[in-house]
Task: structure prediction
Amino acid sequence: MQPYRNLIGGEWVGTSGVMNINPSDTGDVVGEFARATEADTLDAIAAARAAFPAWSSTTPATRGTILRSASTLLMARREELGTQLSREEGKTLAEGIGEVTRAAQIFDFFAAETQRLAGESLASVRPGIEVTVTREPLGVVGIITPWNFPMAIPAWKIAPALCHGNAVVFKPAELVPASAWSLVSVLQESGLPAGVLNFVNGPGSVVGNTLVNDPRVDGISFTGSVATGQRIVVAAASRFGKVQLEMGGKNPLVVLDDADLDIAVDCAVNGAYFSTGQRCTASSRLIVTRGIHDRFVDALIRRLEQLTVGHALHEGTEVGPVVNDSQLASNLTYIDVGKAEGAHLAFGGEVLERLTPGYFMVPALFTGATNDMRIAREEIFGPVACVIEARDFEEALHLANDTEYGLASGICTTSLKMASVYRQKAQAGMVMVNLPTAGVDFHVPFGGRKRSSYGPREQGRAAAEFYTSIKTAYTLP
Ligand code: NDP
Result:
């Protein structure tokens, strides 16, 4: 089998590499992917630097045409690429196709955005002088992505980078190279000049680390864990590189006494368990006020009993496998931790056998949890949620904000007043009312506070903050 290769300076390079395994069926090899080395990464950075001057001077229309072509190709191939994505990551086929569709929408948005690049012209405080404020591309951008959204996260970083005229070196998570490779090949097919987008698939400790420390890389956009983000910001800041980090979450979903029970249960199931709970915006803390607590828990358990867990590509599957063996082991450890801390395992939490050998587990629900337990404080990143009972709205709000993270925060209520107060007081970058905490639009800012995010927001027009540098010019005509 010929390995999928890396793209450096417009050439596909690399030989034997790592096998990519289907988590729904570990006997199924998705492909072999060439492993980039430190030398490959240095070559990729050099290629991006060489391509940057010409690319940053192209007209917005030229860049827009390429981005729109990528959008069209992704849309046309969404079933095929969605299947590939579900096969390598384990989310359901509907979620996989949905993610490729989202990537296509993002490229379409930034294709249009190329036509709206604007600056400001202001009157000076000094007589006779003209002042303009314009944005210029940052330069060479290193893009480092996690495994849980193998197509959408690369898309929402690469599309704005190219829209604003930057050259890119892209390193995906080694666990999910197939979607990343497909995205890069679609962009290549769309007419990107050689060297503008370089693809280096390899370990974070080698490829990622080289990107972060190289002074020729003007900015690093990273999504992943807090621990890696922390290392990256320290290293990049020491050489004054620009950094944007999107990291973890321990997102609360508050359910008030007056909530519509069906909506609240839907929000909890979707937010906590869909995509196997492997979303940074997953609502892993369900904070429920006393008057609805028992009814909510009963209804949620009834719904969990009906959830179909299985092979990501099989019809009817609602929750696919965990991404790999170490993530499954980590989830199971948290089940033991929760029990040892005194929470009640009300549902699930055990390994599940299916027809194919895969990393399946029954979605788990703890009740009787308190907010100081590890299962309520640490990001588990699996289908594990805990219910924390609150006296009233004030206590629920306090508990929701009592976390080191601040990505998404949700509330289910029929009270406009409570919803409005929650929206104002929630210490999070994104607030959802009567909606799951996971699931966002692509044309508005995405990001959080506290340990969830660092640096400018991603997506929508806000993406310009990271991918451009502002220039203020004064002219005396
Ligand atoms: P990791 O932090 O382990 O990895 C993220 C990326 O960083 C991978 O590509 C990894 O490479 C790379 N990396 C690892 N070490 C280094 C290093 N020393 N220098 C540079 N790069 C490095 O996270 P996961 O992939 O496990 O993703 C899960 C995490 O991502 C969760 O905590 C989740 O919350 C977070 N996440 C946040 C989102 C958000 O927008 N806030 C969205 C999605 C996920 P490799 O793995 O190939 O070695």
Residues 93-113 form the longest helix (21 residues). The pocket of NDP is lined by residues 144-149, 171, 173-174, 203-205, 208-209, 212, 223-225, 228, 231-232, 246-249, 280, 379, 381, 407, 452 (CB under 6 Å). DSSP finds 15 helices and 22 strands in the chain.
